[in-house]
Amino acid sequence: MAPDELEQKAERAVRRGELLVALEHFEAYLAQQPDDERIRARMESVRTLLQPSELVSRRRTEPEEPQTGAPPQSDAEVGELHAGTGRFAEAAEAYERAVAGDPQNDLLRERLEELRSLANPIGKADLDAGEKLEPVPAANSGPKGPGRSARAHAASFAPLPPARPLPREPEALLEELLQRVRTGRR
Question: Are 129 and 120 in contact (CB under 8 A)?
Fold first, then answer.
């Protein structure tokens, strides 16, 4: 697989939250392009998102201490920083710069469209079309008997009526089971 495809798959996996899959794609990319420091830095940033228990079974190929001369952040990374804080318009602007720098990158164009839709929602929410809820009675309105949760609890743990034993013959067994299904019995 081409390095660009591996990078796009890795970034999609990061967006879906599949960080271990993303790391595998980044490692495959680095196997083909071992001198790409930008991908190495991105891989390290994804690795920091993992929980220690997720790394137990993985062999670490990078040194534990972070590199001091980290490369500058790309426009896409700046866009993700803005998107992570809810500033979708600024994120879209950063992704526009990233797409201008690499117009053939489908992943950048897809993310730009997502951010544009988040930055400019089509319309306001129609609150009148929502489900109407019944008003909650006041807490001091007096006792009315067992509430819904008490009835649900009683129904959940009510003993089942004793069932007839199932017949041994296959045809009779099938007839009995079908009858129980029709009547809703167990």
Answer: no
For 121-180, write each residue's pLDDT tens digit. Answer: 776 777 777 777 777 766 665 555 555 666 666 666 666 666 778 888 999 989 988 888
Q: Are residues 49 and 83 in the same domain?
A: no
Residue 105 CB contacts under 8 Å (≥ 6 apart), including other chains: 4, 8, 98, 99
Its domain, for residue 19, covers 1-53
Q: 107 with 8: CB under 8 angstroms?
A: yes
Q: Helix H segments across 17-169?
A: 19-32, 37-48, 52-55, 75-84, 88-101, 106-119, 148-156
Residues whose CB falls within 8 Å of the CB of residue 98, separated by 6 or more in sequence, listed in order: 74, 75, 76, 79, 105, 108, 112
Residue 48 lies in a domain: yes
